[in-house]
Structures are given as structure tokens and as C-alpha cells.
Amino acid sequence: MDYTRLDFEKPIIELERKIQELKSFTSGEKINLSSEIEKLQEKLERVKKEVYHNLGAWQKIQIARHPQRPYSLDYVSLIMSDFIEFHGDRLFGDDKALIAGLATLNSKKIMLIGHQKGRDTKENLVRNFGCANPEGYRKALRIMKLAEKFDVPIVCFIDTPGAFPGIGAEERGQAHAIALNLKEMSCIKVPIIVVVIGEGGSGGALGIGVGDRICVLENAYYSVISPEGCAAILWKDSSKAPEAAEELSLTADKLLKLGVIDEIIPEPLGGAHKDPQKTALAIKETLLRYIKELSHLSREKLIANRYERFRKIGVFENKPH
């Protein structure tokens, strides 16, 4: 597959180009350059590891936003079966930026809820670039209540730059819809497992982000605000987004250290788009493990643990004046 390349991948691109040139040359000539090609391939692997193992926060955000990165429906098709999508919030309409439905994961029934982006401009307009409206969050809550009624665990895939901030969304109660989800998800009496698969921005992510276990893919991010939004507020300059990204502690490794998340799900070298199947299997293993673990808890214990989990996030200090 011909991937869209990022700026920091230029050394990798250059080596791949040289290897391809040598292979093309030897195919038409009676010259054996296999040793030179092998050396370049070894160097390529070293450079890949050096580049991808030393990514900064802004570089990881670029990978999280990669146009070929797998989205919620991609993971549904890769690791789930019998997906039946539900539509509408029974109040206003159906929000295609947020999907929800019943699926099967290794013979286990689950309720899947996730943000969904588009692959091209036309599809992104339909999906609103993964930015859900109030009706999307109300649909999500309706489906969660259904899962609770039939004792089905809930899986949430987060992938949004944020909830849609348009006038119509505000008029229809965007803030209230998200706040209500936070309140109701805290006491849903079935296991909730949250996976941030790409972007995890602001209240748009939190609207389906209250769970018993929260996992983040290695190159995904989870933040109170986008780096661009933070830069615009602090420095009145959105071009300072890379600096803001470093200060926000939004990468998976920092989130785990801070106790915001429970686990980092590994990605293939270079990002989930390099090997969607491998990434999907890693997500599947994590989901099955947590579903099994949480299913043994009583409903009362499940709610109590969830409450304690979120109460432990964040610390403060009293400093003498």
C-alpha cells in the first residue's frame, strides 16, 4: 500500500527509494547487487527503529491523525462479526459521526459505540470529520441503557478531535448531552471498556469515555483540548501546536504514568495503518481479557470500582503563601 508520508519519515523514504532503485536496476541487468541491497535493508530497519522509538508528542499526533489510520468500522470488520448498527436518538435524528450497535466478539455479545471519520472529503462531510452532535451522544446513551437492560458489556472506540462546536449543536444541548453521559456512564451496571484508537479530544472524547478500563493505542492521544486549541488560547497562535502538545502530557506513555489510563495497546512500527490486522488483534486480546476480568464482578462492585478509579485521577498540593 502507498502510504501518505509524514515529514519526520523522510530518512526512511530516502532509503526505501534507494532500495527500490537498486532492485529495479538489477532486474534489467546481469548485475548482482544483493549484498548492497541487504546492507541498505538492514540500515532501513535501524533507521525505522530510531525514528519511531523516539517520536515526540506532535509526531505521535500526526500518526494519530494519519488519513489511512484504521477507524472504528475498520476494527469492527477486522475483529467482530454480526454487527447490527442502531440509528437515531429518538429526539432529533441520527448522527453518523458516532456509530453504535450490537456485535459479536469471539462468540461474546457486546455493544459497540465509536466515533467514525471519513476517508475522503465526501465521506468526511457525512461523518462530520468524527465530530459528534448532541444527538450522537444521546444515541450512545440510549444504546448503553439497552446494553445494561440485556446485561451486555460495552466497548467504546474514541477517535474525535472534539464534539462539534457549531451553533446548531449548542442550540440542541451539546454540553448537556455530554454532561448527562458522564453522569449516566458512571453508574451503568455493565462493564465498559474504552479504547482511544486515534484522536481523543476534549468533551467529545469524554462523552463516551467513562469506563472501567481505559486503554490508548501507542500512537493515539487523549487530551482536555487539542494542541491547536491550547496554543490559540495560551499564545494566541495555533502554529505553536507542537509546543502545546509537549506541555499537555497527552501521549499514551505520559497518560499511563499519570494514572489517567490503564494500559497502552502496542502498534506496529510506524503506526496502526502499517498493519491494521495486527493492531486489531492486539485490541481484541485486550478487550477479551478485560471483559473476562470485569464479568466476574457484581454490579455493585463494578460501580464502586469505577467511582474510585476516577476519584483517584489528579492530585493537588497546598503550598504555603
Structure, explained:
Strands 1, 2, 3, 4, 5, 6, 7 and 8 form an eight-stranded mixed sheet that branches. With 321 residues, this protein is α/β, with parallel strands linked by helices. The protein folds into two domains: 7-54; 61-311, 2-enoyl-CoA Hydratase, Chain A, domain 1, CATH 3.90.226. Helices cover 48% and strands 15% of the residues. Helix 9 (202-206) links the parallel strand 5 (192-201) and strand 6. It is globular.
Topology:
Layout: H1 10-28, H2 34-52, H3 57-64, H4 72-79, E1 81-85, E2 98-105, E3 108-115, H5 121-127, H6 134-149, E4 154-160, H7 167-171, H8 174-185, E5 192-201, H9 202-206, E6 213-217, E7 221-223, H10 227-234, H11 241-247, H12 252-258, E8 263-265, H13 276-295, H14 299-311
Parallel strand pairs: 3-4, 4-5, 5-6, 5-7, 6-8
Antiparallel strand pairs: 1-2, 2-3
Helix pairs in contact: 1-2, 3-11, 4-13, 6-8, 10-11
List key phrases describing it.
15% strand, 321 residues, 2 domains, alpha/beta, 2-enoyl-CoA Hydratase, Chain A, domain 1, eight-stranded mixed beta sheet
| Multimer state | single chain
Number of helices: 14
Mean pLDDT: 91
CATH topology of the largest domain: 2-enoyl-CoA Hydratase, Chain A, domain 1
Uncertain segments of ≥5 residues (pLDDT<50)? none
Query: Got a strand count?
Result: 8
> Which secondary-structure class do the elements indicate?
alpha/beta
Q: What's the structural domain tally?
A: 2
Overall radius of gyration = 22 Å
> What is the CATH superfamily of the largest domain?
2-enoyl-CoA Hydratase, Chain A, domain 1
H and E order: HHHHEEEHHEHHEHEEHHHEHH
First-last Cα distance: 60 Å
**Percent in helix:** 40-55%
CATH architecture of the largest domain: Alpha-Beta Complex
Strand content range: 15-25%
